[in-house]
Structures are given as structure tokens and as C-alpha cells.
Design brief:
This protein has 100 residues and is an alpha/beta fold. The chain has helices at 16-32, 47-53, 55-66, 75-80, 84-89; strands spanning 6-11, 38-43, 70-74, 93-95.
Length: 100
């Protein structure tokens, strides 16, 4: 069995404290501490609006990106919430995710 090296974190809770104290703390520290070789944070649902509108969360997105976290967002969600351009301007990869 091969060792898994990539963490995908699907972020669906739009609570700011959860974002700060779990989502970003874990994704950023996972790379800084070598817990995972690659980390992808997927922005989904209501979190799309939180990211697009909240300055504090936007700074955490920047910190995550600067730390090497790949940040991606569900394109269907971002289109419905009219946030695609804002997310892309932040460096978030906006794509149609296929759940297998």
C-alpha cells in the first residue's frame, strides 16, 4: 500500500471562528510542519460568500497561499454567489469540482 501524501480539505462551514481555528490552522500548519506534502483547501457552498466578503478570511487565504496551500473553489457555487472574479483576483483556483 502506498503512503498518501496529499490532503484535500472540503470547507463547507461558513463560521469565521471555525475557519480561523480549524481550517486555516490545520491546512497551513500541515505544510509548515511536514504533516502532508501537499494540501488543497476546497471552498464550497456558503464559505464562498464568507471568503468573498470577509477581510480577515481573505488575509488567511493569502497566508495559506503564501504557505503553499493550493486553494480552490467550486465554480458553480462562486457563479451562483457572484464571487468568481473576487476569488480569482485573490489567487483562488475556481473550477468545477467533480466528486468521485
Amino acid at each position: 500500500m502506498s503512503e498518501k501524501t496529499h490532503l484535500y480539505l472540503l470547507w463547507t462551514n461558513a463560521d469565521e471562528m471555525t475557519a480561523e481555528k480549524m481550517v486555516f490552522m490545520y491546512t497551513i500548519n500541515s505544510l509548515r510542519n511536514g504533516w502532508w506534502e501537499n494540501v488543497t483547501l476546497i471552498v464550497w457552498g456558503a464559505t464562498t460568500q464568507l471568503v468573498a466578503e470577509n477581510i480577515k478570511i481573505q488575509s488567511l487565504i493569502k497566508e495559506a497561499l503564501d504557505s503553499g496551500v493550493h486553494v480552490s473553489a467550486c465554480k458553480a457555487c462562486s457563479e451562483q454567489l457572484e464571487a468568481t472574479e473576487t476569488l480569482r483576483d485573490m489567487g483562488v483556483d475556481v473550477v468545477y469540482w467533480e466528486i468521485l
